Each structure stands twice: as C-alpha cells, then as structure tokens.
Amino acid sequence: MSDIDLTVGDITAFRADAIVNAANSSLLGGGGVDGAIHRAGGPAILRDCRLLRETSLPSGLEPGAAVAATAGDLAARWVIHTVGPVYSSSEDRSPTLRDCYTRSLRLANALGAGSIAFPLISGGAYGWPLDDAVAQQIRAVKESDSAVESITLVAFSDAIADITRRLLR
Ligand code: ADP
C-alpha cells in the first residue's frame, strides 16, 4: 500500500521522483500548473514535449493518457504529463479523470519511481467542481494499488486542502 499524503503549495517546489502535470493535449504548454511547470523546469521540458509530438505522439495526448518526459531543472527525475477531461454537466467523464491518476501511477511504477506528486487534475481551467475532482483523485489513487511508495496530493489552495483532508479521512 502506498502512503498518501497531502501538502499545500506549489508542486514545482516539491521534491519527488515524478511530478505530474495537468497538461493539455498539445503538450506544448498552457496556463495553470502546466505554465508553472514549464517556467520552473526551464526550456528542456518544452523541447522534450516537442520531440514527443514529432515522434510517438503526432496528434498529441488524449484525455486520460499519460506520458513521461524530462523534468528539466525541477527537483524530480520525470514530469509525467497527463490530460484531464474538461468538465461536462451532461456527460460523466469521471472514468477518464481517474484514468489520469491510474495511468500516471502505472507509468511511475514502470519507471521505478518511489515517489510521485499530483496536482488536482481538471480542477482549474477544465472546470471540475472541486469536491468531485478531489473525490475522483482520492478514489483513483486508493484503487490503483500501486507499488509507488509515496503519493503526495499537492493542493494549491487552502480550500482544496480542506476538501482533501476531509475526504482522506
Ligand atoms: P486543468 O486544465 O487540468 O484544470 P489547471 O492547471 O488549470 O489544470 O488546474 C489544475 C489545478 O492545479 C488547480 O487546482 C490549480 O489551482 C492547480 N495549480 C495551479 N498552479 C499550481 C502549482 N504551481 N502547483 C500546484 N497546483 C497548481
């Protein structure tokens, strides 16, 4: 069983073998946590993403999928890019949201990562209601039964941290 911890703050300052990015399908950068990771990790991150687009992912990364790439200057060995689904009130996209966590963990496992840090995927620009975004995150991480020893959920606000604390109990 993995340890699941909560921390509040900026994921780019967190020390873990793998840091997960809530990317968009283009893999070429964006706002929110994606922008922060590219800024803090330096140009190597975009270079590596461009290379992925030119080789294995010509049409980008679909929602729910995950890919590992360099962490550039970050205090991590890998950035795992995953693409959350945009929230929809008419369609249940939560299996795809959970896939982001499950597949990132599977990838981290395959790489031999001992620790991984997640932001709240789809919990920003992609509009997911925060309570449910956190509920899906916790469910996916608990169900994944991964061999990665340490999983840290990085809440970017006190509001997210409060929800996470409540749902982790
Ligand atoms: P998405 O497009 O998947 O919704 P966002 O980056 O817009 O992705 O938001 C995802 C979550 O990441 C939000 O909760 C947002 O507050 C949070 N976030 C933004 N910047 C950072 C950061 N530097 N570290 C950790 N979390 C962050």
TrEMBL record:
It comes from Gordonia sesuvii. Keywords: Hydrolase. Residues 1-169 form the Macro domain. Its EC number is 3.1.1.106. It is an enzyme of class 3 (hydrolase). Coiled coil: none annotated. This is O-acetyl-ADP-ribose deacetylase. GO terms for molecular function: O-acetyl-ADP-ribose deacetylase activity.
